Amino acid sequence: MQGINVEPVSNWMVANVVGAVAPFTFDLIAGGRSNLTYRVTGADGQRFVVRRPPLGHVLATAHDMAREFRIISAVGLSSVPVPLALGLCTDESVNGAPFYVMGYVDGVVLDSPERGAELPMPLRRVAGEDLVDVLADLHAVDIDAVGLGNLAKREGYVERQVKRWSTQWEQSKTRELPAIDEVARKLREALPVQQGVSIAHGDFRFGNCLTNLTTGRIAAVLDWELCTLGDPLADLGYLGVYWYHGDLGTMRANDPTPAGGFPTYPELVARYAQRTGRDVSRIDYYVAFGCWRLAVISEGVYARYVQGAMGQSDDAGFLAFKAATEALAERAREALSRL
């Protein structure tokens, strides 16, 4: 199994994970540029999940297993549904890189319109409302009480993010794109006052959750790699990037909501406001920020392809990242125009 040294990992799990019974079978369930995720089945049928960094990755800080394990352990103390944190291995002699083990959660990742169509129509509104309720609950977690008070700086989140991603754009851009620079300038000029500090997931959407197709409820929130402390409305705005608004410009291949039957994004925003009491009148700023940040990320992927770092097996797929950069920059500009 690529990425798993079966015997030493198995021995480690038996010694460190309560209830783990060898021998184990390992199946890759998520790979690529993000952390690798494996389903592990014990001899007694009990299932676990192992997460490790991408193969060959050298920037450990970008795929910090101990940090991610710390976050899900802390969030697990709250009402927010996350997999159970079961064990962390930082001894790289075991598997060539740190990894952690968490509980297996049944559910489906709704990461396409086709997957969205698998959810029964009466449950689609339930799922959308539960998704935003889970986000509100995450933002209500007492960061000090769960031990995350020193995870990151508490204030100036959006300002730091705009600065960071502006630098990233300058380093990775493959062409001039005036819309990116225009949006960056307007984001700096119109910085909102941060409404408190919360756990900010950083990539909160259906595609990073497991949904129960029987109840429509969120079974677990996954992929905490980008989590930090910050402005809670950044997560709410980013959710709007992955929500179909009724026009082709807002369709994304990894968003289930074009399947129909889900609440509208304004309905989600209103529900969040009611749950949290936060002022959401400038949510379009955060939608613009989310689109712009994702545009810069897309350009970075395309730039690595142009430089030959990604291999040349899927030219059309990487050209889609170039087009996405342009489309997202325009969406960001449009969102700012609504302020």
Tally of DSSP β-strands: 9
CATH class of the largest domain: Alpha Beta
- Bin the helical content: 40-55%
Strand content range = 5-15%
- pLDDT below 50 for ≥5 consecutive residues: which ranges? none
The topology string of helices and strands comes to: HEEEHEHEHHHHEEEEHHHH
Question: Which short descriptors sum up this protein?
Answer:
five-stranded antiparallel beta sheet, single chain, alpha+beta, Phosphorylase Kinase, domain 1, Aminoglycoside 3'-phosphotransferase, Chain: A, domain 2, two-stranded antiparallel sheet, 339 residues
Molecular structure report:
It is globular and about 60 Å long. The protein is an alpha+beta fold and 339 residues long. The protein folds into 2 domains: 98 residues, 2-Layer Sandwich (Phosphorylase Kinase, domain 1), CATH 3.30.200; 225 residues, Alpha-Beta Complex (Aminoglycoside 3'-phosphotransferase, Chain: A, domain 2), CATH 3.90.1200. The protein starts with 5 loop residues before the first helix and ends with a helix. The longest helix is centred in the C-terminal third of the chain and has 24 residues. The mean pLDDT is 94. The protein has 11 helices and 9 strands. 44% of the residues lie in helices and 12% in strands. The strands form 3 sheets. The protein has a 5-stranded antiparallel beta sheet with strand order 1-2-3-5-4, with helices on both faces.
